[in-house]
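Protein modeling request. Please complete all fields; requests missing the sequence field cannot be processed.
Requester role: graduate student
Desired output: 3D structure, token encoding
Chains: 1
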Amino acid sequence: MSDDKDSKTESPTAKKLTEAAEKGNVPFSREVTIFASTLAFYLFLVFFLPSSVSQLGETLKDLFEQPDQWRLENTQDLISLGVHLAWAAAAVLAPAMLLFIVFGIVSSISQNMPSLVLERIRPQASRLSPAKGFKRIYSLPGLIEFGKSVFKIVVVSIIMYFALRGEFFASLDAMFSDPQVILVKLDTITRKMVVVILLSTAVLSVIDFLWTRHHWFTELKMTKQEVKDEHKQSQGDPLVKSRQRSVARDRARRRMINNVPRATLVIANPTHYAVALRYVREENDAPIVVAKGQDLIALKIREIAEANAIPVFEDPPLARSMFAQVSVDSVIPPAFYKAVAELVHRVYATRSLKQRTR
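Delivered output (358 residues):
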């Protein structure tokens, strides 16, 4: 197993990263979510809780100081009182719930954009197997998560001890003072505790975020052979593609050779190059290259042209230039108009002379 991991030295390709994301295999740090929840609680504690508790305190004060305004003679009265207290408690908890939801969503989106992964919700028998569950819990990732949890508890406890040890005796003294003082002291201690947890989770979330992405990227690494196989799958087997290109060239060559009898004239460089042109006034404004070739193909074009009584003009510079610059089934460029026009004129003049002779 270690040999297999050692052989995975290549970075994952874009295709493998995309496939992993489609299966729901994306880097996700739970510590970032915990930090976001802690931050949401701290904001609630600082900005919302004092006013909310004050309003709840006024409600309870009215209830206890003026109990006669709440009659409890039947079930309806009891339900009415419960609804009133529930709305008062909801006013306190609603900002907290909203903050938790918003910060939870933001922490998730900041790591990966949400996507629907049906593979995650597909029923799997392995999830019901106690043996599989035992392996998941006591596997290396499970032990790493357990180690992180223990580390967090130890580190946060040590930091909190040093941060709050000076508050211990002050808290005991506050117990014998006015209730308002107890609440103020309790609020101060709670804020300190949350700040300690917030700073600790911030450091842990940064470390865990980087580690999670590094581990995820390492797990997706590929061997050289896997990279080659994927390249073959995406680009096709080189031998097969070479064969396909060869077949395509042969078909194009045969189609081109079959077009030679339609040519009006052929321009050749005695044996090395041949370019067959077709010009019919009713079809195009300029001559079109219907076939071209060199060496054996050039000789084949000349042979077919002579067999079909198509004039062949030997003009080496013109033949080489047109072979290099004009593709098959394309109109010749204006640079060749003059030279080709003279040859076309000679062809039509010869045809006209033969017709008059007949």
